[in-house]
Fold:
Amino acid sequence: MYGSTEYGGNPYNSGTIFRISPSGIFTSLLTLNNPLGCAYPAAALLLAPNRLLYGTAIGRGEGNVFSITPVGALTTLHSFDDTDGVAPEGGLVQAFNGMLYGTTNQGGTNQDGTIFKMTPDGALTTMHNFTGSDGAFPAAGLVQASNGLLYGTTWKGGANNYGTIFAISLGGVFTTLYSFSGGADSGFPYAALIQGNDGNLYGTAEGAHNNGTVFRITPAGALTTLHTFDQTDGSAPLATLVQGTDGNFYGATFLGGAGGEGEIFRITPSGDLTIVYSFGGTGGNEPVGGLVQHTDGAFYGTTSSGGSSLNGTIYRLSMGLQPFVKTLPAYGEVGSTVTILGSSLNNATITGVTFNGTAAAFTDLGQEGLTAIVPAGATTGPVRVTTSTGTLSSNTAYQVLP
Structure:
């Protein structure tokens, strides 16, 4: 697993990029500094099919987009100059067309932030300048839904200045779907959205006049508040949700819970919430980033403070879920090559691969997983790998593109 720290690292205290194994073997790959032109990476990294990791950094200057190899060789792809945005806090997503998409928290024509697209080698185009009335200060990245549209949130702006949810096409057609009111629906959505297995979008709001909420919104913009935090079960959910292979959503609150330092929660798609873990002390405090589910079935995440040195921790959370496989990318046309990753593939003999039941040709790459060709007749659905020890399914449906 790969990640970044916003601060730390010598001599500039400008952040680092690291690698860590599921057993906890930690390697600092790179310390960001002035000569590299990047500093303060504040978002998760994106692993692209070309095996490069892509990330964003919010300073020095107005912010940057960069790529980095798995062994730590960094290339600055774009430096923002205020006219095209400032502070790309939310990270990147790679869409069906192979382009990278992201947001800047400020800057642009109206100083309210932008949405941009970029080629993998760094040619950037501004797609939308926020105006305030249609949203302002997008703090999180985007998600591409199965309908092809990109969805995101702004922390402020909109009809009531409590933030918005928006959609934008790959061609740049922008729609404000929802403006938070600051009432029962809360406000100030800080985290990115995710699309659930049911096709709806799920997210969190930091909280306007309460402790924050978890919500569901249809792709057309009908919002339902699923849970309102009350401090005892958490406060200020800043982290993006993840849907586990059990169908439940997992997330974290920055504050609240039994120790007052944040907690991890599990919530069903219908809104039943359970506290899984309360932070405090050596386990870490104040989680900002979300959890990720590794192909070993466990969840992994970070805290922004606490731990033995008070500078944050990386943690593992086991919920007893089974291993699975992950496709890279999660979409493609018939005939395209797909990389399939899975920790349980390393010591097993692979005997078959299917795309929603249709058999596919594959090549075993040993420790690097395997590649498969999307077969003729394949339809959108799970990818399954049959091995000498059992069958592993993908955690999300593979989308077969026309």
User: Anything to note?
Assistant: The mean pLDDT is 94.
